[in-house]
Amino acid sequence: MKPNKRSRISHDNISPTVESNFDHLPDELVVSILASLSSSANTPADLAGAMMTDRRFRQLAHSKLVLKKASMGCLAVRAKNWSEAADRFLQRCADAGNLEASYILGMIRFYCARSRRTGAALIVSAANGGHLEAIFSLAVIQFNGSGVSKQDRDLTLGAGLCARAARLGHVDATRELGHCLLDGYGVTSAPINGRLLLQRAKQRDAENERQQASLGTLHQKTHHANTFLSEWFSQTPEARNAAHCSDKSPIEEIGDMRLCSNALCGRQETRLHEFRRCSACASAYYCSRACQAADWKMGHRTSCMPRNQEINPHGNQNHVQEGQPE
Ligand SMILES: [Zn+2]
Ligand SMILES: [Zn+2]
Predict the structure, then answer these.
(1) Most buried one in 126, 130, 187, 285, CB count within 10 A?
(2) Tens-place pLDDT, residues 156-177
(3) Of the candidates 53, 74, 95, which is a domain's last residue?
């Protein structure tokens, strides 16, 4: 069969025509087209491809509007592809007011590159813009005293950040605040209110699960920052240093730094013995009680083996009643 004439036209043949058509468009219109592309991009390559069209496209693709609107897909650089150029791109997006870029780059700098100060500043900037994950991540940092010493933890500030994120509907923050109120951690103890918040978090989880089931989505939605962290720490130290900016000193490896046992979290301790451990089995470690509750649901409930199971066959019940995961 004779091939369709259109299908035989190569990209090389089309490109000059497309470029010449765009040549006649004013910059504002091209920026608006590029902003639409960046806001709907599924991968970073979508915008990068447009940038490679020519010099004018590259310049216009760096305009504030295009970078501010860059979608999560556009910002979702994989850990194995991390580079100085990727860091610069996210920084430009963050400077343009893109809150997702601020948060993702902040988390990468804070946990992966160990640039705690610039990382925290970016997360704060996203949180100040109302980014819920950023507000909750700051709470985790405050509760753990991440990047500083244990004595410098600010539990009151952590609980305050949780309250702010919970008010705006963040489920993990609602759960964390519930536990804080139950045991007076960073706040005045108020067990009744704590239980109400834990109940609310549970209801929201059930609603989200029903919604996911109705949409046919089987997997729990994970923020890209967490996916990046998980991927980053699953690489060898050599690969991590190769991806780290070449003009910077290598990332110092500190032995026995633990990863959060919630596989969807990705956070690594910033100092030894930072994360809380499962009080029953003492073999799982968590950055937050939200992660402990999530991991409990995802399977730790069946693998958690209490240390004193030989003398206490109902050890797991105690563990649940201790109120870490509901
Ligand atoms: Zn975690
Ligand atoms: Zn356990």
Answers:
(1) 126
(2) 999 999 999 999 999 999 999 9
(3) 74
The number of domains in the chain is 2
- Looking at residue 32, its amino acid is S
The single residue listed with the structure tokens 């500030």 is 157
Domain that holds residue 236: 228-240+258-321
Which ligand gives the minimal distance to the CA of 268?
A: 1
Within a domain: residue 314? yes
pLDDT band, very low/low/confident/very high, at 249 (cuts 50, 70, 90): low
Q: Which ligand is nearest to the CA of 137?
A: 1
Taking the CA of 290 as reference, the closest ligand is 1
**Cα of 137 from ligand 1 centre, angstroms:** 10
Is residue 37 in some structural domain? Answer: yes
- Cα–Cα distance measured from residue 115 to residue 112, given in angstroms and rounded to the nearest whole number: 8
CA of 307 to the centre of ligand 2 (A): 9
